[in-house]
Design a protein that fits this description.
By secondary structure, the chain is an all-alpha fold. It contains 18 helices and two strands. The longest helix has 38 residues. The structure holds tryptophan.
């Protein structure tokens, strides 16, 4: 059992708590906003199929690797690589993860702030306060972006400074079931509307001719981001995991929860697009979507306004609160990585670490708020590129430095007899060969 220097580390109270928190980290803007947008713009059901393959064949094995590193070392990403090898190089991989987390969080809060703002936009619109409503729909409005991003960051800091079991676990335990419940209600509503069946077909009947290299690249990046892989968030969460828990099983739950919610979000939003079109809202120009990145932020409010009345108001407010909640359980995991790093490596107190680092990141968020075009650059460097590079190096570390046998030995805690299972024969091959090869191929093809 890893010994930690600080009582500020903590651990999960229960298995469900861990799964809820890890699933909460996975489920966020990536699932509810990013995934449906990509399905809509990049190939419908064909995209869905490739995304599922990437999630299960690449994402799941890497998740098991991250959790094993975390639990074995009981450390943040930097400390974990130091604890498990003499390598001078790999702690920098951990540090790169911390940096990616910080930078992703700096723009994630701004987008989350847009979602949060839209909940109030619905209310202002309903009461006819059009000027205020319009302010909230202006994603380029610096001061407004900064204020809402700050509110969001304070919420994240509050939860993180509460500690592992009291803060993160409690928050996600109530948020996750609520989230699923609300999405299911929304699907029930959307599917009974005229035009929905066309969206269901687009979402579930694949046109295989749409599959090409760029679709596969995009789907893989989406899978990585959505599962929160590649920057050590799950090394950190794994470090709070009890030795009695079964790592492959926990990873399978988290993966299924992430995929399940992405799938449900698609089933809500893709048909909703066609319902909106049926109601006369122009969502296509020819066969191209009129909007892509702002799909969720344009189409859905329009749909809610078309529904109108108290029903439209309630659905609109609920949906955007739901998106904000999902984003909050993700920002928690992003902030937890640098905070655990500061606690472990520099002996900082949890509360102090959360406030100092959170406010530091908020400064970057404010810069992004006033220059939303930075989002594209940050997203490319720290997410599209940063996460797969991190994932690749994690595979190399587990496959060739720490060794998959050591990882399997760690997994034996909580999974007695794992060595005799098919998993123990297949997983090392994925970590040593398949995952690194596929990830590397994608990074290289991205540069070409
Ligand atoms: N997975 C989250 C989403 O889908 C985002 C996220 C949270 C994340 N923590 C992360 C992405 C760590 C990469 C790494 O919105």
């Amino acid at each position: 059992m890893a010994v930690t220097s600080s009582s500020d580390r903590g651990s999960w109270n229960s298995k469900l708590g861990f799964i809820m928190a890890a699933a909460g980290s996975a489920v966020g803007l990536g699932n509810i906003w990013g995934f449906p947008t990509k399905v809509a713009t990049e190939g419908g059901a064909a995209y869905l199929i490739i995304y599922l393959l990437c999630t299960f064949l690449i994402g799941f094995p890497v998740m098991v690797a991250e959790l094993s590193i975390g639990r074995r070392s009981g450390k943040n990403p930097v400390g974990a690589f130091k604890a498990l090898s003499d390598s001078k190089f790999f702690p920098f991989v951990g540090l790169w993860g911390v940096i990616c987390g910080v930078m992703i969080l700096s723009f994630y809060t701004v987008i989350a702030g847009w979602a949060f703002g839209y909940a109030f936009e619905e209310i202002f619109y309903y009461f006819g306060w059009d000027t205020l409503a319009q302010l909230l729909t202006d994603t380029g409005h610096g001061p407004k972006n900064a204020v809402i991003a700050a509110v969001f960051m304070f919420g994240t800091i509050k939860i993180i400074s509460g500690g592992v079991s009291d803060g993160i676990e409690k928050a996600t335990k109530t948020m996750m079931p609520m989230l699923i419940g609300i999405i299911v209600i929304m699907i029930g509503y959307v599917l009974t509307q005229d035009g929905a069946s066309e969206g269901v077909k687009e979402y579930l009947l694949p046109d295989f001719s749409k599959i090409n290299a760029s679709l596969i690249f995009s789907a893989m990046g989406q899978a990585f981001f959505s599962l929160s892989l590649g920057m050590g968030a799950l090394i950190t969460y794994g470090s709070y995991l009890n030795k009695k828990e079964n790592i492959p099983q926990a990873a399978a739950f988290v993966t299924l929860a992430d995929v399940g919610i992405a799938f449900l979000a698609g089933l809500m939003i893709i048909p909703a697009m066609y319902v909106a079109r049926n109601a006369g809202i122009e969502i296509f120009v020819g066969d191209q979507l009129a909007s892509s990145t702002d799909l969720v932020f344009q189409i859905l409010p329009a749909l809610f306004h078309t529904i109108g009345g108290a029903m439209g108001l309630i659905l609109g407010v609920v949906f955007f609160l739901l998106l904000s909640i999902a984003a909050l359980t993700s920002t928690i995991s992003l902030l937890e990585v640098p905070v655990s790093y500061a606690i472990d490596e520099y002996g900082l107190e949890r509360k102090k670490a959360a406030w100092y680092i959170g406010l530091g990141i908020l400064a970057v968020s404010v810069a992004v708020s006033f220059n939303p075009s930075l989002i594209g650059t940050f997203d490319y460097v720290f997410n599209n590129l940063g996460l797969p590079i991190g994932g690749l190096l994690i595979c190399v570390f587990v496959g060739y430095v720490w060794k998959t046998d050591s990882a399997i030995a760690e997994m034996e805690n909580g999974f007695i007899g794992i060595k005799q299972t098919l998993f123990a024969k297949v997983w090392p091959f994925f970590i040593k060969v398949i995952c690194p090869a596929v990830i590397l191929y994608n990074i290289v093809s991205n540069f070409l």
